[in-house]
Design goal:
The structure is a homodimer of 409-residue chains.
Chain A (H helix, E strand, L loop, with lengths): L5 H5 L9 H9 L3 E4 L11 H9 L14 H12 L10 E4 L1 H13 L5 E6 L4 H8 L3 E6 L11 H7 L4 E7 L11 H14 L2 E5 L25 E6 L12 E5 L2 H13 L5 H10 L4 H23 L14 E5 L5 H10 L6 E4 L1 E2 L13 E5 L4 H17 L16
Helix pairs in contact in A: 3-10, 4-10, 5-6, 5-9, 11-13
Amino acid sequence: MPDISKRGQNIPASPIRKLVPFARAARDRGTKIYLLNIGQPDIKTPENAIEAIKQKDIKVLGYSHSAGNETYRRKLVNYYKTFGVTLDYTDIIVTTGASEALAFTLMACLDEGDELIVPEPFYANYNSFSLSGGINIRPITAKIEDDFALPPIAEFEKLITANTKGILICNPSNPTGYLYSKEELIALKKIAKKHDLFLFVDEVYREFCYGDKKFHSVLTLSGVEQNVIVFDSISKRYSACGARIGMVVSRNKVVMDAVMRFAQARLSPPTLAQIVAEATLDTDPSYLKEVIKEYDNRRKTLIKRLQAMDDVICPNTGGAFYVFAQLPIDDSETFCRWLLEAFEYKGATVMMAPGSGFYATKGLGKQEVRIAYVLKEDDLHKAMDCLEAALNVYPGRLKKEDQGMEVLV
Amino acid sequence: MPDISKRGQNIPASPIRKLVPFARAARDRGTKIYLLNIGQPDIKTPENAIEAIKQKDIKVLGYSHSAGNETYRRKLVNYYKTFGVTLDYTDIIVTTGASEALAFTLMACLDEGDELIVPEPFYANYNSFSLSGGINIRPITAKIEDDFALPPIAEFEKLITANTKGILICNPSNPTGYLYSKEELIALKKIAKKHDLFLFVDEVYREFCYGDKKFHSVLTLSGVEQNVIVFDSISKRYSACGARIGMVVSRNKVVMDAVMRFAQARLSPPTLAQIVAEATLDTDPSYLKEVIKEYDNRRKTLIKRLQAMDDVICPNTGGAFYVFAQLPIDDSETFCRWLLEAFEYKGATVMMAPGSGFYATKGLGKQEVRIAYVLKEDDLHKAMDCLEAALNVYPGRLKKEDQGMEVLV
C-alpha cells in the first residue's frame, strides 16, 4: 500500500469535530446536548435570500465566472461602502467560503518555509491551510488578563526573520471575541510597512460588535493598500454557513491576479449559493440590527454567568459570538470529553471547544474553552447550569492555587 | 510592496479562459461566437433536481457534515452499484466539485518534490493542483495516430523513480475523448502494484461512452483496492457544473482519513447544491439515455465534419464530449486568438481551446485544438462552417509538407 504524504499525516483533525463521536453516543443515550462548540448559529437565514433561489428560473445550472458573478461583485462594492471602504469590483474575488479565500491567498503569497505571524489563540483551521502549503505559523501569545488584546509590537519584531511574509489576525476575533482598536490596527500597519509584510485580516464577524466599541476595517487604513488582504464571508453575517460563499478583498493587483489563477483552476464558486448571497444584500437592515441585539443579549448573559462561577475567568468581549474562558480544570480536552461521556445534569450536558486546539504553542489552552453563543438565552442559561454543576464534580478540577498555572506537556 | 510566492507566480492562467477578453471584444463588435472552448454543456439540468431545492423548507442554511450529507453518501452507494462497484458510504467523501477532490487527494498523498505520471494531453488544471502542492508532473505523450490510447507501459517504467507516487488518468478522457479499455486498466493496475503507486482516475465522464465500447471503472479491479482513488462529479453527468458537487472515492482508509482532515478544515461542501445532487439520483433513467444519444449524434457530426476537412486529423473517440484534433496551423494559441480577433464568417466565429495548454511538454499541441461538443448539431455545423472557412484564409496555415512537424519553441 503506498504511503500517504507527510502533510497528509500532519494535517490536524478538527479539534472541535473530534468530539463528535462522543456527542453522538451521549445523544444516543438520550442526553440533551447544548451545542456551544461550533460557530453554527441558530439564527434564521434572511427569508428573502432563500426565496431568491426559489424564484430563480434555472434551466442549466452552469458555472459562474471564476471570480464570481459580476452583478454580485458590483453589489458588494456598495456593501463595503457602508463601513467606509471604497473598492472597485475587481478588488473582490468570490470564493467557496472564507476557507477557500484563505487557502488560495496563503498559497498565492507564501512559499514553503515562509513564515506567518499569528496571535494565538487563533482559528484552528489557519493551521491546516498553512500546513497544506508548507507555511510555518509563528505564534505570539495573547493574554487572557488583557482580554486577548494585540500583544506588544515588540513581540512581533522579535519574531520577524527573512522568511516572514505576513501577519494574520481575525477581527473581531474567533475564538476570543476580542475587537481590535484603531490604534492596534495602526500599530500593525506600521510594522507591515516597516518590514514589507502582508497584513491578512479575517473580518467575517465585522457586523457583530457590541457596546461602545466600534469596528475598524483594515481596508480603511491608508498607505498599506498593497499589504492588506481581507477574508470575508456571508456565513455568519446572514447565518448562511452552508452557502459556502466567501471572498478575498484586496487592492493589490498582483495578489489578486495570482488568486484569480488559483480560482480558475477550480472553475467557479457555487452558482446556487451566489444567488442567495446576492439576495442577502437586499435584506432589510432591521434583520442585522435584531441579530446583533440578540447576540449582545446572549453575550451579556453568558459572560455574567461565567464570571459568577468560582475560579472561572471570562474576559469582557467586544465582538464576534465567542468567549474564551479559563476554567479550573486540568485539561480542557479531557474535560470536554468527560462532559459528553460521563456527566449529565437534569438529563443534559454541554459541548464546548477545548482551548488547546486554538494554540500553536504546545501546552497552552489546557484550562481554556471556547464557547459559541449560538443558542437562545434560555438554553444558554441551562447550558451554564450544566457547566456550573459539572465544575463542582469534575474529578480533574484544579485547586485554587493551581489555577492559571499552565500544565506543560 | 511584498512579493507574492513563487507558486503564486507559477500557477498558470487557464489556457481556455485567457481568450475570454478577445471573445468579449468580438461579441461587443456584434460577432456571434460558437463556444466550443469549455465543457459547459447546453443540456438542461434535470428538472426534478432543480425542483428539489424549490420544495425544500430551509430556515437556517447551515453547514453539512464535512464529508457531505450521510443520506446523499448512502444513496451514492446505490448509484455506484449500477456499474458494478460495491462501496461502503464511508468510501465516499463529498467535495466542492471534482476540483476539490483532486486538490485534497493530491495534497494528502504527495509531498513537495513527489512525482505524478500523467499521460498528455491532460486536463490543464491538473497542473495547477500539482503546482500548488509542489508536486511534479512527469508527462508521457499519447499519440494522435493511436487515438490518444494509453502509451506503452514501458514508457511509464522509464519514468518511475523513488519519488514517483502515482499515475493519474482521466477515463474517458478530457481532453481527448479516448475511452480506456479493460486491458489498458489492467496494465496500469499491474504497474501500480509492482511499484506500489497510487492509481488516480478521474471518471467524471463515465456515462458518456459511445458505440460498442464499454466503460470500465478502475474501482472494479481487484487487488489494487488500496491503490485506487477515483474523482467524480455531478457536473457533466447531470449538466450541473455550477452546483460544485464532486467526490473522492476510495477504499483506502488511510487516504480517506487524511482527505477527511482536509475536508474538515474547509468545514463543509455546499449545502444547497447537495440537495440538488441528491435529487439527481432520482432522475428518470431516460434523461441520461437521451443525453448520451444527443452527445453521440453531435460527436458523429463533429468528427465527420472535421475528417472531411483538408489536412485535418480527427481521431475517432469513445467517450466524454471532446475531440482533440490536429489542424494545419502554425500555432493553436495564435489561431484561436485570430479567430476571435480577426475573423468572421457569415457574422460568426468559433472559440476553441488551444492544444498546447493540455501538454506539459513544451512545444507540443501547437497544431492541436480541443473542441467540446456542447452545442446543438445545427450550431455545430455552423461552427464547422466557420472553422473550414477560417482554415482557408488563416495566414499561418501550414503547407501540407509541414503538417505534423511540431514547431518547437
